[in-house]
Amino acid sequence: MGLFARARRALRPEAALLKSHGMIEGEWIPTEKPLFTVRICINKRLNTDRLPSCAGRGSRGLADLLEQRILAERIPASITRGPCMNNCAIGPNLKIQAAEFISLKDDLSQANIEMIVEAIRREAERRKAGQVADTPEPLLP
Ligand code: FES
Prior knowledge:
The chain has 141 residues and is of the alpha+beta class. It folds into two domains: 1-30, no CATH class; 32-128, Glutaredoxin (3-Layer(aba) Sandwich), CATH 3.40.30.10. It has helices spanning 3-20, 59-72, 110-128; strands at residues 36-41, 77-82, 93-96, 101-103. The protein has a four-stranded mixed beta sheet with strand order 2-1-3-4, covered by helices on one side. The longest helix is centred in the last third of the chain and has 19 residues, at 110-128. The structure holds FE2/S2 (inorganic) cluster. FE2/S2 (inorganic) cluster (FES) binds next to loops.
């Protein structure tokens, strides 16, 4: 498969998302410049050591989903897929830049996804207001 075909294939989910929100491809208006990033561990183990990994618990799909939500809601944030954060047993794990560290403890329920999106929205509002991030409080007990 050629480079352009692969690039076109990679962009397909975005095109479908635009269409689902009533936008026409080519008339897309980029979101404002991201104010911060959300780093998600997408480490996947071969599991020769029998340890859990975030990707083994769905973090790659979660990263895609959060990216789509951020795009659809035009939140000025970006998703960064990253390596292990050394909290594998309580993953999938993600870190909002200079704010909350969120461990999902193998629970990718809709409620937890909404909680993450809300935390991202809250951080965007805080940064738009020019407030310095407070000491983050854990979102999950
Ligand atoms: S595999 Fe995600 S924190 Fe280690």
